[in-house]
C-alpha cells in the first residue's frame, strides 16, 4: 500500500527543505511505500498564507527550483539557496537507503513534456482518452520514457447511470474548466458561481460516470495498457460506501486477474 505526501506548491504553503526532511524520515520508517507529489498548485489551497499568488511562469520556476533543492538534499549535499525559495545550510542527516521518488503533476501535454526530463515520474488526471494519449506521449518524448506514470481517475459510480451523472454534476461540475481558471480561483464560492454554466455533455468526457462495474474495469484496463503503474481512484459523488465496497470486492480482483494474463505489447 503506497503512502504519499502531496505538496502542491513547494515554496509557498510548504517549504521544500522541510518537506525533504520529513520525506526522508518517513521513507526510512516505511521504506518503498512513500513518494512525494509536487505541482504548481491552486490558489484555492495556497492563498491562506496571505502571500501573493504568482503568475504561472513564476510558479513553474519555483516548482523546478524546489525540486532541485530536494534532489540536492537527497544526494547528501548541504544546500544554501536564495531564489524563489530561501534555504540556509540545510542538510539531511538521515537519508533513506532508497530515496522517495519525486512525482510531478502535469495536466497538459506542454507541462508533461517540461517535467519529463527532471522529474522521477509524473501524475496526471483521467482526461478524455485522446487527450490522455497526448499527455502520455509528450511525457515520453520529453525524456520520461521508462519513468513511472501515475494517474488520478475521476469517476462517479452509483446505483444507476442517472444517479452517477447527478452526483458528478452536483460535486464536480467545475472540473471541466480550463486549468488556468481552476488554478487562479481563490474561494469555493467562486467555483459554485461557475457551476450553472457547465452542462452534462461538457462534463461527461472528463469523469467516468457509470453504474456498470464492467465499464469501469474496461476503462481501468485501458489505463494499464497505456502504461500507468499507479492508479488512484477518486469518486466524486457522496456514495462512498458503495464505491469502496463494490470496487474493492468486484473490480480490483478482476484487474489483478487481468494483470496476470499475457498481453500483446506489439
Offer a quick outline of the entry.
With 266 residues, this protein is α/β, with parallel strands linked by helices. It has helices spanning 16-29, 43-46, 56-74, 109-115, 129-144, 161-172, 179-184, 188-194, 200-203, 213-226, 240-260, and strands at residues 3-7, 34-38, 79-82, 86-90, 101-105, 121-125, 149-156, 208-209, 230-235. Strands 1, 2, 5, 6, 7, 8 and 9 form a 7-stranded parallel beta sheet that branches. A two-stranded antiparallel sheet has the order 3-4.
What does this structure look like?
With 266 residues, the chain is an alpha/beta fold. It has a domain at 153-227 and 240-266. The chain has eleven helices and nine strands. The longest helix has 21 residues, at 240-260. It is globular, with a radius of gyration of 20 Å. The relative contact order is 0.11.
Characteristic terms for this protein:
single chain; 266 residues; alpha/beta; 7-stranded parallel β-sheet; two-stranded antiparallel ribbon; 11 helices; 9 strands; 47% helix; globular
Amino acid at each position: 500500500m503506497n503512502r504519499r505526501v502531496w505538496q502542491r506548491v513547494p515554496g509557498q504553503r510548504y517549504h521544500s527543505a522541510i518537506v525533504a526532511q520529513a520525506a526522508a524520515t518517513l521513507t526510512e520508517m516505511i521504506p518503498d511505500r512513500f513518494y512525494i507529489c509536487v505541482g504548481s498548485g491552486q490558489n484555492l489551497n495556497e492563498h491562506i498564507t496571505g502571500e501573493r499568488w504568482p503568475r504561472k511562469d513564476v510558479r513553474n520556476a519555483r516548482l523546478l527550483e524546489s525540486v532541485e533543492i530536494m534532489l540536492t538534499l537527497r544526494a547528501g549535499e548541504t544546500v544554501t539557496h536564495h531564489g524563489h525559495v530561501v534555504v540556509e545550510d540545510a542538510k539531511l542527516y538521515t537519508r533513506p537507503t532508497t530515496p522517495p521518488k519525486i512525482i510531478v503533476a502535469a495536466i497538459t501535454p506542454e507541462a508533461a513534456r517540461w517535467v519529463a526530463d527532471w522529474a522521477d515520474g509524473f501524475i496526471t488526471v483521467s482526461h478524455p482518452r485522446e487527450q490522455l494519449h497526448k499527455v502520455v506521449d509528450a511525457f515520453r518524448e520529453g525524456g520520461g520514457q521508462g519513468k513511472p506514470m501515475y494517474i488520478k481517475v475521476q469517476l462517479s459510480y452509483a446505483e444507476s447511470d442517472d444517479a452517477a451523472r447527478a452526483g458528478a454534476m452536483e460535486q464536480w461540475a467545475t472540473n471541466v474548466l480550463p486549468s488556468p481558471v481552476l488554478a487562479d480561483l481563490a474561494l469555493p464560492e467562486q467555483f459554485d458561481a461557475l457551476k450553472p454554466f457547465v452542462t452534462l455533455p461538457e462534463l461527461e468526457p472528463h469523469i467516468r460516470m457509470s453504474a456498470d462495474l464492467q465499464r469501469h474495469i474496461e476503462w481501468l484496463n485501458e489505463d494499464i495498457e497505456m502504461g500507468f503503474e499507479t492508479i488512484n481512484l477518486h469518486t466524486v459523488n457522496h456514495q462512498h460506501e458503495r464505491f469502496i465496497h463494490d470496487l474493492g470486492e468486484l473490480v480490483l480482483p478482476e484487474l489483478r486477474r487481468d494483470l496476470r494474463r499475457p498481453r500483446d505489447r506489439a
